[in-house]
Specification:
By secondary structure, this protein is mainly alpha-helical. The protein has a domain of 198 residues. It is 64% helix and 5% strand. It is built from 9 helices and 5 strands, in the order H-H-H-H-H-E-E-H-E-E-E-H-H-H. It has a 3-stranded antiparallel beta sheet with strand order 4-3-5. Strands 1-2 form a two-stranded antiparallel ribbon. Helix 2 runs parallel beside helix 6 and helix 8 packs antiparallel against helix 9. The protein is globular and about 70 Å long. It starts with a helix and ends in an 11-residue tail after the last helix.
Length: 371
């Protein structure tokens, strides 16, 4: 398991633990008032997450960034050439970049855990007041009110942040997005900054099968980082990069690499490809594959929600059994889509191999993911 996946798993386990703390106290007949014991439990979990995040940022971010720095030289090494000399004093640029990326990640997730802590306290207090009013008005039993409280946390989730579009992100989902985005950004930043230290201007963005509609018009092209190399589009006009980020969007899998036209057998063709209209040219098969991946993401979110219900609802109750059955159905659908995805990947891999073989042989070849 890589370091990124490990941190995502830690947040997922902590998220379940938070729900279980709340559920356990309610099911045990404890007062649903936000008492000191629950406050300590919640704060302990969130404090542990903050410490794990800080340690991850201190140790893993520099390693990811260093991987990008090393990758910057790969284009020269692959062509038995020596990379350019690095500009004097550029180590300070690298150090500052690593510190900024690590601090940004730590601050984002620390803000998220602090927000979750406040939301748990606020929700329980609000639920207590609402339950008291409802009991007075309708005679609802305390047991029912506790169940309502548990349902609220499971259904609505433990919100970590509200983004600019008004969407609320659960703690585990937000942590996964931040972690995976930081992983890609650190590597891309290391590569781009090292190339700047070399005085090299041209980079190429990776090209993938079944990209999203945001990335599709821009992937695979060669860009000028400074705009000083004529005949290539500017990198700072690409979505995401135009706002100072090191990728198209959060959770993006695209990476940068150095582009050396002197070693490209079809440099003119690459330049022409880089200047074609910025439109979505995905094949219908690639669009279907992307839509399937989104459906898989939706099923993963549903599976998480059902796993939370199974982990927190009293065993043997109708609600618990219903959640277990729905979870089995969701897993079965995931497996079905997974089989379709494997077939698609095998087909795409064959097409990709044929494309690269033709290109390496000096033959005219069109990327199989474009119409």
């Amino acid at each position: 398991m890589d370091a990124t996946t490990a941190l995502v798993l830690i947040y997922r386990q902590a998220y379940i633990a938070l729900l279980q703390r709340i559920s356990k106290r309610a099911q045990a007949g404890k007062s649903i008032v936000y008492d000191a014991a629950m406050a300590r439990d919640v704060r302990q979990i969130l404090d542990e997450l903050d410490e794990v995040t800080a340690q991850w940022a201190r140790t893993v971010v520099p390693r990811l960034y260093s991987d990008g720095v090393k990758l910057a030289a790969a284009a020269w090494i692959a062509n038995n050439a020596k990379p350019p000399a690095i500009a004097k004093g550029f180590a300070r640029v690298h150090r500052a970049a690593v510190e900024a990326i690590a601090a940004n990640m730590t601050n984002q997730l620390r803000d998220a855990t602090a927000y979750v802590g406040r939301r748990i306290e606020d929700n329980v207090r609000r639920a207590t007041l609402e339950a008291a009013a409802q009991k007075f008005a309708t005679g609802q039993k305390l047991k029912d009110m506790k169940a309502d409280l548990i349902d609220t946390f499971i259904d609505e989730g433990l919100t970590a942040i509200r983004d600019g579009a008004g969407r609320e992100w659960r703690l585990d989902t937000y942590a996964e997005m931040v972690t995976r985005t930081t992983t890609a950004e650190a590597a891309n930043a290391g590569l781009i900054n090292q190339l700047k230290g070399y005085g090299h201007d041209l980079v190429q963005l990776s090209e993938h099968r079944s990209p999203c509609e945001i990335c599709a018009p821009y992937e695979g092209r060669v860009y000028s980082m400074t705009g000083k190399t004529e005949g290539y589009p500017r990198l700072d006009q690409v979505p995401g990069f135009d706002m100072g980020y090191m990728n198209f969007h959060p959770n993006c899998r695209h990476v940068c690499s150095a582009y050396l036209p002197e070693f490209d057998k079809d440099a003119d063709g690459t330049k022409a490809m880089s200047n074609r209209p910025f439109v979505d040219e995905r094949t219908e098969a690639d669009k279907r594959a992307y839509a399937r991946s989104q459906e898989q993401n939706k099923l993963r979110r549903e599976r998480k929600r059902l796993e939370e219900q199974v982990a927190t609802l009293p065993k043997g109750t109708p609600e618990y059994e219903k959640a277990r059955e729905k979870l089995r159905e969701t897993r079965a659908e995931q497996q079905r889509l997974g089989r379709e995805e494997r077939k698609w990947k095998e087909q795409a891999a064959r097409e990709n191999r044929a494309y690269y073989a033709a290109r390496d042989a000096g033959k005219e070849a069109e990327w199989p993911g474009r119409q």
